[in-house]
Amino acid sequence: MCRSIKTLRPPVMPVVEDEDIRAAALQYVRKVSGFRAPAAHNKDAFDAAVEAVAEATRTLLDELVVRGTPKAEVAS
After folding, report:
1. Which of 6, 11, 24, 64 has the greatest number of C-beta atoms within 10 Å?
2. In this structure, is residue 24 part of a structural domain?
3. What is the DSSP string of 5-73?
4. Source organism's superkingdom (predicted)?
5. Are the C-beta atoms of 76 and 44 separated by less than 8 Å?
6. What is the pLDDT of residue 72?
7. Would you say 5 and 20 are in contact if contact means Cβ atoms under 8 Å apart?
8. Lowest mean pLDDT among 30-34, 60-64, 66-70
9. In total, how many domains does the chain have?
10. Which domain holds residue 63?
11. 1 within some domain
């Protein structure tokens, strides 16, 4: 599932931009919903889901501890 979503955690991506997180969230919501772009009547729900997934992703990346990664790289 979601083969085009790239790994965002250190050390694979030492610097993760908000646009990377949003792109991954958008791809996930597209895959789960089955829609590349939502119809007008589903746009609010679609956009809210993208934002929720992006926020959850940021929280996950901020809290992950990856063994072998220097602490300076872990902090975002």
Report:
1. 24
2. yes
3. PPP-STTTSSS--HHHHHHHHHHHHHHHHT-SS--GGGHHHHHHHHHHHHHHHHHHHHH---TTS-HHH
4. Bacteria
5. no
6. 54
7. no
8. 66-70
9. 1
10. 18-74
11. no
